């Protein structure tokens, strides 16, 4: 009996010490910033500003699913009036933050294209601040931005394994939301850097809790979804609704922080037990959205692989995957 009590106590102590050590080793430092005169709109959490889902035309697309079983919209081209959405969000003074991580070789390979295309297509007309997290702030391109659009660079530590970079992204997102974003923005989107905007990624995408359908899985039977099937992992799933892509997620600051905290803490518990989820933070994200249904789902228009030529229902490519260079960039 004493041995069991000691074992439980030791495990709990080890978990606490691990969290403390990682927290101490991964503090972000706003060393370089191109952001000027960002107004603090409120000391309270800013809530989402408008709800326009009753204006969506769910019948406009007969070839795809436009609504989930829990009545959340799945956004496709032709379902919404972009001018109406933008007008209402401008009237509501909606503000948006976008976070992106460009660590190691990913900065040189992708960041300039990501930022310049985002400025051209992401939430055009709305106040937007791009938050770039990098280990090389001096190399971040200083792109030309429209009025009320800003760029802020925050220095982070570089980890030797890309899996650890992916894991710690969630912790950093949670911290920056708590420290800054929740006081200044109605919504936050979190995107992978190895992507390029090709078309409108606008206010129709905004919602309380937003996920995106993975382009390779949304037409497949659920038995082929690559959920984590390891019962030892906190990401373990026997079933789910859809398979979501972790390259794009967003929502209100509170909702995104809840997602980030969930993914980080469960990843850390796996790490303590010498377990690594199949697709890392994406596996934990899918588990979170199974337990906490997103209020809005973006179709694969919002995260498309341009090598695909057989998905004719994706008639607009808003955000596309950049060519992957894993062998070179993840060394």
Automatic annotation (TrEMBL):
<feature type="binding site">
    <location>
        <position position="226"/>
    </location>
    <ligand>
        <name>an alpha-L-fucosyl-(1-&gt;2)-beta-D-galactosyl derivative</name>
    </ligand>
</feature>
<dbReference type="GO" id="GO:0005794">
    <property type="term" value="C:Golgi apparatus"/>
</dbReference>
<dbReference type="GO" id="GO:0016020">
    <property type="term" value="C:membrane"/>
</dbReference>
<dbReference type="GO" id="GO:0031982">
    <property type="term" value="C:vesicle"/>
</dbReference>
<dbReference type="GO" id="GO:0016757">
    <property type="term" value="F:glycosyltransferase activity"/>
</dbReference>
<keyword id="KW-0479">Metal-binding</keyword>
<keyword id="KW-0812">Transmembrane</keyword>
<dbReference type="GO" id="GO:0046872">
    <property type="term" value="F:metal ion binding"/>
</dbReference>
<dbReference type="Pfam" id="PF03414">
    <property type="entry name" value="Glyco_transf_6"/>
</dbReference>
<protein>
    <recommendedName>
        <fullName>Alpha 1,3-galactosyltransferase 2</fullName>
    </recommendedName>
</protein>
<dbReference type="GO" id="GO:0005975">
    <property type="term" value="P:carbohydrate metabolic process"/>
</dbReference>
<keyword id="KW-0808">Transferase</keyword>
<keyword id="KW-0735">Signal-anchor</keyword>
<feature type="binding site">
    <location>
        <position position="192"/>
    </location>
    <ligand>
        <name>Mn(2+)</name>
    </ligand>
</feature>
<feature type="binding site">
    <location>
        <position position="282"/>
    </location>
    <ligand>
        <name>an alpha-L-fucosyl-(1-&gt;2)-beta-D-galactosyl derivative</name>
    </ligand>
</feature>
<comment type="similarity">
    <text>Belongs to the glycosyltransferase 6 family.</text>
</comment>
<feature type="binding site">
    <location>
        <begin position="192"/>
        <end position="194"/>
    </location>
    <ligand>
        <name>UDP-N-acetyl-alpha-D-galactosamine</name>
    </ligand>
</feature>
<keyword id="KW-0472">Membrane</keyword>
<keyword id="KW-0464">Manganese</keyword>
<dbReference type="InterPro" id="IPR005076">
    <property type="entry name" value="Glyco_trans_6"/>
</dbReference>
<feature type="binding site">
    <location>
        <position position="214"/>
    </location>
    <ligand>
        <name>an alpha-L-fucosyl-(1-&gt;2)-beta-D-galactosyl derivative</name>
    </ligand>
</feature>
<feature type="binding site">
    <location>
        <position position="106"/>
    </location>
    <ligand>
        <name>UDP-N-acetyl-alpha-D-galactosamine</name>
    </ligand>
</feature>
<keyword id="KW-1133">Transmembrane helix</keyword>
<feature type="active site" description="Nucleophile">
    <location>
        <position position="282"/>
    </location>
</feature>
<feature type="binding site">
    <location>
        <begin position="101"/>
        <end position="103"/>
    </location>
    <ligand>
        <name>UDP-N-acetyl-alpha-D-galactosamine</name>
    </ligand>
</feature>
<dbReference type="InterPro" id="IPR029044">
    <property type="entry name" value="Nucleotide-diphossugar_trans"/>
</dbReference>
<feature type="binding site">
    <location>
        <position position="194"/>
    </location>
    <ligand>
        <name>Mn(2+)</name>
    </ligand>
</feature>
<keyword id="KW-0328">Glycosyltransferase</keyword>
<feature type="binding site">
    <location>
        <position position="305"/>
    </location>
    <ligand>
        <name>an alpha-L-fucosyl-(1-&gt;2)-beta-D-galactosyl derivative</name>
    </ligand>
</feature>
<dbReference type="GO" id="GO:0016758">
    <property type="term" value="F:hexosyltransferase activity"/>
</dbReference>
């Amino acid at each position: 009996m004493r041995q069991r009590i000691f074992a439980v106590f030791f495990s709990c102590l080890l978990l606490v010490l691990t969290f403390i050590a990682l927290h101490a080793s991964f503090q972000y430092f706003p060393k370089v910033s191109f952001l000027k005169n960002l107004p603090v709109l409120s000391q309270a959490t800013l809530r989402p500003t408008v709800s326009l889902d009753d204006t969506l035309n769910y019948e406009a697309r007969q070839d795809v699913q436009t609504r989930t079983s829990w009545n959340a919209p799945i956004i496709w081209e032709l379902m919404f009036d972009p001018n109406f959405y933008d007008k209402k969000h401008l009237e509501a003074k909606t503000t948006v933050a976008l976070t992106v991580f460009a660590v190691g070789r990913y900065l040189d390979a992708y960041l300039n294209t990501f930022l310049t295309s985002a400025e051209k297509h992401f939430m055009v007309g709305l106040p937007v601040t791009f938050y770039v997290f990098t280990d090389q702030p001096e190399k971040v391109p200083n792109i030309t931005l429209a009025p009320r659009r800003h760029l802020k660079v925050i220095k982070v530590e570089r980890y030797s394994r890309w899996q650890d970079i992916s894991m710690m992204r969630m912790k950093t997102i949670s911290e920056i939301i708590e420290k800054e974003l929740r006081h200044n923005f109605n919504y936050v989107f979190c995107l992978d850097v190895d992507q390029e905007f090709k078309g409108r990624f606008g206010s129709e995408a905004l919602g309380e809790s937003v996920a995106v359908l993975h382009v390779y899985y949304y037409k497949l039977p659920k038995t082929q979804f690559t959920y984590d099937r390891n019962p030892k992992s906190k990401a373990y799933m026997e079933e789910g609704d859809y398979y979501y892509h972790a390259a794009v997620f967003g929502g209100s600051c509170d909702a995104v922080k809840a997602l980030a905290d969930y993914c980080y803490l469960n990843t850390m518990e796996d790490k303590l037990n010498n377990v690594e989820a199949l697709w890392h933070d994406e596996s934990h994200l899918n588990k979170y959205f199974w337990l906490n249904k997103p209020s809005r789902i973006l179709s694969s228009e919002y995260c498309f692989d341009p090598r695909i030529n057989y998905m004719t229902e994706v008639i607009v490519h808003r955000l596309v995957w950049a060519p992957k260079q894993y062998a070179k960039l993840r060394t």
